[in-house]
Amino acid sequence: MLTNLFARNPKAREVLCKKHMAVIGVGSIGSAIVGMATRAGIGKLTQVDPDTLSDENLARHVLTSPWVGKPKVVGMAAHISEVNPDCQVNSIADRFDPDVFGGPWRVNAFGSDGCTERHLSFGKPDVIVAATDSYQCSFSH
User: Fold this and answer.
1) What are the residue ranges spanned by the domains of the chain?
2) CATH number of 10-139
3) Which of 30, 43, 116, 123 could form a Cys-Cys staple with 111, CB 3.0–4.6 A?
4) pTM for the whole thing?
C-alpha cells in the first residue's frame, strides 16, 4: 500500500480502495478520468477502448510518444501501475460490449506490460463512465 500517496485523504482512500470504476473510452477525457481516479485511490479500474494511440492524440492525451501505435488501454495500464501499483486494472482493447457489463466480468485483459494475457473476474462496476468519441459509439451494440 502506498500510504504516503494517500496521506492527505486516508478516509477517502479507505472508501475508494473498495470501489470498481469502468471507463468506456480512454481518449483525451477518458485518460484524464482514469488518471485522476488512480490518484484518488480507486481499487479496481476497468478500461475499454479499441484504439491505438496516434500522433494526433498526443496534444490532449495522458500518454506520450513512446506509446504511439500501441493500444491506449495497454499504455494506460502501465501508467496506472506507475502511479498506484495497488490499483487492479482490467484492460479491454476492444469495442464496448454492454452484455459484458451484465455478466460476471470474466474477460481477456492485458497485463501492464502489454504482453501478458490474463483473465480477471472483477464483478459489476460501482460506476461506469462513458468517455467515448460519440453518442453512437457509446450506445451501439
Assistant:
1) 10-139
2) 3.40.50.720
3) 116
4) 0.79
Comparing C-alpha atoms, which of 4, 56, 2, 13 is closest to residue 37? 13
Enumerate residue ranges in the chain where pLDDT < 50: 104-120, 138-141
The cell numbers describing 103, all together, are: 455478466
Amino acid of residue 114: G
Contact 61, 31 (CB under 8 A): yes
- When computed from its CA atoms, the radius of gyration of the chain, rounded to whole angstroms, is 14
DSSP three-state, residue 118: strand
Reduced to 3 states, what is the DSSP secondary structure of residue 122?
coil
pLDDT digits over 69-107, tens only? Answer: 999 999 999 999 999 999 999 888 888 877 666 554 443
CA–CA separation, 37 vs 44, rounded Å?
A: 10
